[in-house]
Design a protein that fits this description.
Layout lengths: L6 E2 L6 E7 L3 E6 L4 E5 L6 E2 L3 E3 L6 E7 L4 E6 L4 E5 H6 L12 E4 L2 E2 L8 E6 L4 E6 L3 E6 L4 E7 L5 E8 L2 E6 L4 E5 L4 E6 L1
Parallel strand pairs: 1-5
Antiparallel strand pairs: 2-3, 3-4, 4-6, 7-8, 8-9, 9-10, 10-11, 12-13, 13-14, 14-15, 16-17, 17-18, 18-19
Length: about 200
C-alpha cells in the first residue's frame, strides 16, 4: 500500500514533467537537466531516486512511457528526443555514473537520438506505435517509432505549439502561443477545425 504523503527528493531545480509507469515507478524531468526514476512502492516518507539519467544537456520538457511501459521517451530544450529502455535502466548498476548512457537508445530498439533539431515542448503517445511531438518550430511531427522516421508533419504557422492530444486514431488537437485550439486530421494532413 502507498502512504498518503510521500516526498520525492533529488532534483536541484524546478520539475517540469512527471511520468508514472509499470504501476510502481515515476520518472521526473527537471530544469537541472536530469531525469530521476523513483520506486514509489516504498513506504518511506522521503524517497530518493533509484536512478538518475544525465544525458540531456538542457532542461527536460516532457517524458512519456510507450510500448506497454517498456520504454520512456524524453525531450528537452536541447532539441534531443531520447528513447530509453526501461529494463536496461532498472537493471544497470552503473547508469548513475557521470556521462554514462548505457540505456540510451540510438536506433530503435537500440540507441536512438533523433537526428534533426525538433525543438520539443511536448510529447504525446498516439495510436499504432506513433508519438506526436510539438514545439517552437510551429509544427506537429508524427513519428513512427517502429519505422524510425517522421511519418507526418502538420504546420501551425502562427506560433509555437505547446500541447497536443489524440482525440481519435487520426484526429489530433493542439494548443499554442496563438491562443487557438486547432483540430488536425492526420490522414488528410490538414487542419479541419479552428476555435478562434
Amino acid at each position: 500500500t502507498y502512504s498518503t504523503h510521500q516526498e520525492l527528493t533529488g532534483h536541484k531545480n524546478s520539475i517540469n514533467c512527471i511520468c508514472p509507469f509499470q504501476n510502481k515507478y515515476v520518472a521526473t524531468g527537471s530544469n537541472d537537466n536530469t531525469i530521476n526514476i523513483y520506486d514509489i512502492s516504498s513506504e518511506e516518507t522521503k524517497i530518493k531516486p533509484i536512478k538518475k539519467l544525465s544525458f540531456h544537456v538542457d532542461s527536460i520538457n516532457s517524458i512519456i512511457a510507450v510500448d506497454n511501459d517498456n520504454y520512456l521517451i524524453s525531450s528537452g530544450r536541447d532539441d534531443k528526443l531520447c528513447l530509453w529502455d526501461i529494463k536496461e535502466i532498472l537493471d544497470n548498476k552503473d547508469i548513475n555514473k557521470k556521462n554514462s548512457d548505457p540505456s540510451f537508445l540510438e536506433i530503435f530498439p537500440k540507441k536512438y537520438v533523433f537526428s534533426e533539431s525538433i525543438a520539443v515542448y511536448f510529447l504525446c503517445p498516439l495510436s499504432n506505435g506513433k508519438i506526436g511531438v510539438c514545439g517552437r518550430d510551429e509544427t506537429i511531427k508524427i513519428i513512427d517509432i517502429n519505422l524510425k522516421k517522421i511519418n507526418t508533419i502538420l504546420m501551425n504557422e502562427t506560433g509555437a505549439i505547446l500541447s497536443i492530444a489524440e482525440f481519435s486514431e487520426n484526429i489530433i488537437i493542439s494548443g499554442g502561443e496563438d491562443s487557438i485550439i486547432k483540430i488536425y486530421d492526420i490522414s488528410k494532413k490538414k487542419c479541419v477545425c479552428l476555435d478562434k
